[in-house]
Design a protein that fits this description.
- The relative contact order is 0.11.
- By secondary structure, the chain is an alpha/beta fold.
- It has an 8-stranded mixed sheet, with helices on both faces.
- The radius of gyration is 19 Å and the shape is globular.
- The protein has 2 domains: about 180 residues, NAD(P)-binding Rossmann-like Domain (Rossmann fold, 3-Layer(aba) Sandwich); about 140 residues, N-(1-d-carboxylethyl)-l-norvaline Dehydrogenase, domain 2.
Length: about 325
């Protein structure tokens, strides 16, 4: 894996292109927006999504998807979760059979309720796939600040190959044999981050946030086990690590959205001027739907879904959670 295609010109795609270049790979980044492509090629920066952060001059960008993957040994698919199906359908007729994929979005598809690996298996069944997840803000990764992530695949050799292709002193991937656990952790933590932001916005205190993170982790594990994941995965980077980061840091888009809602903003007001996708909005509905299908009780997730998509008042949602029956841990 010395030549990598990065599909997606947002903050995370640009950051991962920087990671790959630092690790010594040849990188071609595909973006739909010609302005982003021109800026990366000429200014070595993505001013729309990572303003002020210099990108490696060796990164080449293009709007031609076929050219991006033509010489690639593997492809990093770095588009928002709800656009993954469309991106893979676009790539399918262009992609060499068996090209390894690293799926980098965190979410569950609304409607189908499929994870990212399940979508990839449906559209590109011959392509071996791995999952990238874990606590990783794009701006910090792009700046070269120390970061540890999970690369998960049922094929250990594939996970190790991506670890070798992307790993460096400042970007430390850990391999995992549990892609479903990594995906469930990455999806559910975004919903819980919205809830934590609401708690902060309502001034309910650090005790309440700690309780929510802890009970939210229990929800994550219940859903993961119902999908066939390993409980141990959720104690790692793609579970607890990502959950703590996203639920406690102001630069999290999901946490910031919840904070605005907690302060009294409407969803439209909270999203005003937001350029990047807030994955937790769609994922809240998808996770709630998946939980209902699997008959798993996720009260925090259901409460966030009710606020975002069913018009429930925040104070009524909070009262409902606090009025739940006492039970053992």
């Amino acid at each position: 894996m010395r030549r990598l295609a990065v599909i997606g010109g947002g903050a995370w795609g640009s950051a991962l292109a920087a990671v790959a270049a630092r690790a010594g790979a040849g990188v071609v980044l595909w973006a739909r927006d010609p302005k982003i492509v021109a800026a990366i090629n000429q200014l070595h920066e993505n001013p729309l999504f990572l303003p002020g952060i210099a990108l490696d001059r060796a990164i080449a960008a293009t709007t031609d998807a076929k050219a991006a993957i033509a010489e690639a040994d593997a492809a990093l698919i770095v588009v928002p979760a709800q656009f993954l199906r469309g991106a893979l359908a676009m790539l399918a007729p262009l992609m060499p059979s068996g090209l390894p994929l690293l799926l980098c979005a965190k979410g569950i598809e609304t409607g189908s309720l499929r994870t990212m690996s399940e979508i990839a298996g449906e559209i590109l069944p011959e392509a071996p796939a791995a999952i990238l997840s874990g606590p990783s803000f794009a701006a910090e990764v792009a700046r070269g600040l120390p970061t540890a992530v999970t690369i998960a695949s049922r094929e250990p050799a594939l996970a190790r190959a991506f670890v070798a292709a992307l790993g460096s002193q400042r970007f430390r991937p850990y391999s995992s044999p549990d892609p479903i656990g990594a995906e469930i952790g990455g999806a559910v933590k975004n919903v819980l981050a919205i809830a934590c932001g609401i708690i902060e916005g309502r001034g309910l205190g650090d005790n309440a946030r700690a309780a929510l993170i802890t009970r939210g982790l229990a929800e994550m594990i219940r859903l993961g086990l119902a999908k066939g994941a390993e409980a141990e995965t959720f104690r790692g980077l793609s579970g607890l690590g990502d959950l703590v980061l996203t639920c406690t840091a102001g630069q999290s888009r999901n946490y910031a959205l919840g904070l605005a809602l907690g302060h009294g903003a409407s969803l439209g007001e909270a999203l005003a001027g937001q350029r990047s996708v807030v994955e937790g909005i769609a994922t809240a509905a998808a996770v709630a739907g998946l939980a209902a299908r699997l008959r798993v009780e996720l009260p925090i997730t259901a409460a966030v879904d009710s606020v975002l998509h069913r018009g429930m008042a925040i104070d009524l949602m909070i009262d409902g959670l606090l009025a739940r029956p006492y039970r053992s841990e």
